[in-house]
């Protein structure tokens, strides 16, 4: 583990800090730590702070329904999410991919599930708008592979 990244919200950076402490204690190495606004969860506008039962999702799961919306009234548009994910990949992940291109390293990213889904989609196929990511039951880890200049996710 070379780095731990989280949003700047207390509910994500406190667990990330605990993970960093654990990994530093196990390895004896100092980790790079990031608390970034870029990794904040999606603002869901008029649904922010409301009970999940109040989300008009028809027959689908309300969280998946929100995840698939390009635009949410008074909320964050998918293009804003895409910009944040692209910035995170460009500013944090790609420099590590270049620096450690010949080594096996790992980065822990702690954040809201949706943001992780968008990030995984971006790394898998370059598009945050892909269908929601569901981890296969037999997948134990996700590996970030690099070509020395950029990173992509493989399983």
Walk me through what this model shows.
It is globular, with a radius of gyration of 16 Å. The longest helix has 22 residues, at 78-99. The model is unreliable at 133-155 (pLDDT under 50). Strand 4 and strand 5 form a beta hairpin. The strands form 2 sheets. A 3-stranded parallel β-sheet has the order 2-1-3, with helices on one face. The chain is of the alpha/beta class. It contains 4 helices and 5 strands, in the order E-H-E-H-H-E-H-E-E.
Could you give a quick summary of the protein structure above?
This protein is of the alpha/beta class and 155 residues long.
Rg from C-alpha positions?
A: 16 Å
* Overall body shape: globular
Fraction in beta strands: 5-15%
Distance between the termini: 18 Å
Low-confidence stretches: 133-155
**Which sheet architecture does the biggest sheet show?**
3 strands, parallel
Which tags fit this structure?
155 residues; alpha/beta; two-stranded antiparallel ribbon; disordered C terminus
Strand and helix layout:
Blueprint lengths: L2 E5 L2 H18 L4 E5 L25 H7 L9 H22 L7 E4 L2 H13 L17 E4 L4 E4 L1
Parallel strand pairs: 1-2, 1-3
Antiparallel strand pairs: 4-5
């Amino acid at each position: 583990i070379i780095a731990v990244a989280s949003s700047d919200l207390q509910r994500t950076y406190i667990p990330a800090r605990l993970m960093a402490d654990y990994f530093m204690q196990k390895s004896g190495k100092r980790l790079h730590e990031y608390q970034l606004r870029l990794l904040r969860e999606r603002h869901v506008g008029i649904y922010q702070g409301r009970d999940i039962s109040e989300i008009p999702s028809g027959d689908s799961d309300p969280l998946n329904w929100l995840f698939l919306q390009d635009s949410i009234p008074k909320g964050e548009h998918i293009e804003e999410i895409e910009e944040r994910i692209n910035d995170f990949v460009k500013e944090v992940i790609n420099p590590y991919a270049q620096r450690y291109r010949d080594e096996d390293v790992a980065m822990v990213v702690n954040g809201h599930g949706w943001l992780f889904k968008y990030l995984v989609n971006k790394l898998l196929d370059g598009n945050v708008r892909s269908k929601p990511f569901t981890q296969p039951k037999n997948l134990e880890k996700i590996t970030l592979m690099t070509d020395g200049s950029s990173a992509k996710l493989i399983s």
